[in-house]
Amino acid sequence: MVKIYYKYKPQRIFGLIYSAKPSIITSSKFPELIITPALENIFVWNLQKGELEKQSMGIESEITIMALSPDSKTLATGHQNGVICLWHSHSLECICKLFGHYSQISALSFNHDGTLICSGSKDTDLICWDVVSERGLFRLRGHRDEITDCKFLKKKNWIVSSSKDKLIKFWDLDSQYCVHTIAGHRNEVWSFDIDNDENFLISGSNDQKLRVWFLQNLLENSINEKEIEKEINPLNTKIVYMGEIIKQSTERVIKIRFVRNAKYLVCQTSGKKLQIFKVRNQNEVEKKMIRTQKRKIEKLKKLEKLEKPQKQSQENDNENDEKKNQQLITLKFANLITIRGSSKIVSFSIPEKTQLEIRKGKVKSKSKMKIILGLNNNSIESYELKFAEKANEQIKTKLKKAITQQGHNSDIRSLKISHDDNLVGTTSSEAVKIWSISTAMPLQTIDSGYGLCCLFAPGDRYFIIGTKNGEIQIFDFLSSKLIESIEKAHLGAIWTMDMNPDGSGIITGGADKCVKFWEFELVDSVYENENENENENENSKKIKKRNKSKSIEMEEENENKKPPKKQLTVVHSKTLKVSDDVLCVRYSPKGRYIGVSLLNSTIQIFFADSLKFYLALYGHKLPAMSMDFSSDETLIATGSADKNLKIWGLDFGDCHRSIFAHDDSIMQVKFVPETHYIFTASKDKTISYWDADSFEKIMSLSGHKAEIWAMDLNSNGTFLITGSHDKSIRVWTKSDEQFVLQEQKENELDSLFEDSLIQDSEKARHLENFLERNDENAVISESKTAAKKSLETYKGAEKLLESLELIEKIFGSNDDFSEKDFSIPSNNPLFMGLSPSEYLLKIMMEIKSNDLEEAILVIPFTSALRLLKFLHFWIVNKNQVELSLRCLLFIVKVYQKQIVSNKIAVSLLDDLQIPAKNSISNLKDLVGFNLAAMRFLQNQVEEVQGKIFKRKRKKKTEIEIEVIDTNECNYYNECELCLTHFIDRSCGWCNDSSSCFSGNYSGPFNQSCSQNSWFFGPDSNCSGPPPPSPPPSPSPSVSPSPSPFPTNDCETYYNNCALCLQHYYDRSCGWCYWDSKCYYGDNNGPIGTQCETNGWFYGPTSYCYIPSPSPSPSPNPTTSSSSDSIGAGGVAGIVIGGVLVISVIIIVFLLYRKKRNSGLKTFPVAEETQKIIDN
């Protein structure tokens, strides 16, 4: 009879925060979210809340590196097996998988528009991928060791890559060859970066120096004719070594990056330090050089040696350019601060978003930088760097937030499921954690010793652990306290612990060659009594102050005394001494036997009641690390460090079967309750499922990326939980999916066959590389195809061959192939009612874009010749032209010699010359027409909405917020745009004229708007003259939506427009122009008010103006002809405002001249504002 089994599948993973890989990402659009790799998953953390927002699952291989596209929409992950996955960054859905590398991905980078990806791997290859078509473009070969970093250039279509072979290479993507090589390092180049202007390249190695290279001449588009005539070596002239930056840490560089528009340089080393350098601009460097020269001259004047040393220094400067360059680099890159993490720093990220704050109605830029660190102890830290506003002040660093509670900082050494199967307790070297299995969230975290074993006491309130230093610690996780610690419970480490089946006590085994028995007892709570005594002392002091009579105090104290509370403890009852260290002890399920595993590789069985010796099990070559009894007490299974699983009978102690179960030591063995099924966990990162009756392997569970230390099953065997060295906790549940062992064996054989195919292709590649490097006459090609042979490639090739053979069987051989008509639908049911041409095209489109070329390469030439006929048919009929041309060009490239000697193929290619050109031109025209239509629609939308999709920012020097030219407020001719400048208040809305005017923090420049009606003025009470003749408005009776603010009393609570303005974002309150009052509401408008939708200021359909029969006045008072809107007061206001503006400009101009002449540092302003002041 065939035996049916049920599959165990992974359900969830928790306990991970950051898997210590050099990738941690923050998005400029969502600065509060952090994207971290969590082994094979992607986690999105909310830094403010400290909670996990999203997570992805489904990829088996571990993530080694991540990269985010410039528009923050696409996330790329590189994996251990060489696969690159593209994800939607918001939904974390996998878009596609890219196969091309043969080893783990070590470098990833997007280009400036996010359409290309460059990836580097341990296989020394560099591959350029097309994100849009989801395929590899080409493979660049030239490095001889692992690629450590790569980056696209903007000025030229180039890629820069660094490697462990001590080289930095520049690759031209057009010619697909290396054009320049920097060989200035003596050790491995671990990272590099290029500034935004692409003038400087900074590279880091194993030493204490960061090397700086000047690239401006290299990236110039024009080439000097004199250089061409002289044939100067471009390596010596176009890349200039400028000097070096000395970093504080002596450890090797991990990552170098320019941040905040290349104003700062951040260097991460392999230790706990993160060093930040200030990158000075050209003006600052010149000022610094002038100051240093002045100081030198002053020193020389004091020494009365001004003339001779000055001439010598000029001669030395002319002779030695290296000193000049080094001096320039020293001045340009100034050490700013060094941040020290609590543990080793693995990765860092700095959000680019600028923070703003408003104080007393004024906008001030926060001179702060947020730095997020990913540490190797499974934690994330966020630091806030506050820059000094004055020269004498120091830069302040503050730890703002840390995510540490959601996981252990070290290995999970043991775990135990509670008796009710709702909780799981885990131990590590620093803490004990109690988790909820249903929510995968930590309930309690308590500091503890190095826990090696653990269990829940009866009632699941107390958690008991055995530590490495021989202590037994008891925790009350409801009160989050260590209630008792029994020191020297063993004289060595307590390796194992188990509970008596009747729940009366526990048994422990340690390195002191003793097995000790402990019984549970309830004693008075020490901690509760201490707390009560403290409370009583405080109460007695208060009573003494109020009542002076001592007799009354004693009576009240006696009345308030409560009976002492009880707490759990363990009392040593007896000891069993053995011949060697105890590694594992277990009670049998019925409590008849006790199994003891010793360091001498033997297992001894004792009677539980009398502790008499019963059986000795010999056979393991190394000590048995774990063992377990079956529920019927007929079998005992032992797992050893010799990688063998042995199944013994308890009647005579005979070994039923010895199975080579794993590739490394077996750490845990568990029987499924009421069955003879066994789970084993090993150091080889896998879990195996066995049948102890048939001695066959049922299935294997893989997912952990490091050694598995702990495992436990629930009371009925429906799920198991494992803990590993990778700091993850995984839950595996029993599914309803049934299978037979024969099916599982066939699947395993298929997977082995797939692995062998991949290994064969890798061996062929290594052999090819070896022959090329050792053959002196061999011509090494630096560019090859990007795709590689994978399982998907073979599947696609098989489908293509089957379809071509099917067509050949029906329509004949190659001789009559060119005379057949393949557009007629076939009656064959295999074609599914399609014509042969449509059927083959469907098969071709099902093959992934990245595997198409490799699939065509696998098929023989005869099949490729048949395919050529269909490609001719598709191109002529303009059906999938792009796909057809791509396949045609690849076939011609690969089978060029065979095609030339074949008449049919030559005639087909001759016939395709004109149709192919016409198809390409038509396709190009179609794309251009669609692009023009999209731009037209974009312009229409911009005109309707008044929004600009891509607003160009003005050039900035030092300030990080956009400076608005408030003199041209006509640009903000709609209130919606005017409202976007609520923060800087450079523009404001006027209730008098229902127009937008320029202004400052005090009010409008245009005095045609009265002060009270200026909405954004700090003194405004929003009670300007109401609009003329408002029409009657309906009063809908709609219940208000729930809001976190007390919006039901909006008229009294938000009785000021300034308070109402604070709730612009949640729109829980809004100002009504019709009656100049504040009302509560929701996103759609006011609720239960007398304000109509058009007058509701914060409604999404609001036009922010009141329809008026009279025309609105012009923003320019000199051109206005309406005497009613301006009047005498308006003219006086205009004159006063003009005088104030002119006086302010004069004062700023004088202060600027004074500071520039005195040599003091000027305030950073925008270039356009600076030009206005200079003029």
From TrEMBL:
Gene Ontology annotations for the cellular component aspect, listed alphabetically: Pwp2p-containing subcomplex of 90S preribosome; small-subunit processome
Biased composition, class Pro residues, residue ranges: 1024-1041
Biased composition (Basic and acidic residues): 301-310
Residue segments, region Disordered: 301-324, 529-567, 1021-1041
Residue ranges annotated for the Small-subunit processome Utp12 domain, each copy included: 837-939
Record key words, sorted: Membrane, Repeat, Transmembrane, Transmembrane helix, WD repeat
InterPro entries: SSU_processome_Utp12, TBC1_cilium_biogenesis, WD40/YVTN_repeat-like_dom_sf, WD40_PAC1, WD40_repeat_CS, WD40_repeat_dom_sf, WD40_rpt
TM segment ranges: 1126-1152
WD repeats: 98-139, 140-181, 182-213, 405-445, 487-528, 617-658, 659-700, 701-742
GO MF, one example: snoRNA binding
UniProt xrefs under Pfam families: Beta-prop_WDR3_1st, Beta-prop_WDR3_2nd, Utp12
Gene3D superfamilies, alphabetized: YVTN repeat-like/Quinoprotein amine dehydrogenase (2.130.10.10)
GO biological process, one term: maturation of SSU-rRNA
Record-stated family: Belongs to the WD repeat WDR3/UTP12 family.
Name of the protein this chain belongs to: Wd repeat-containing protein
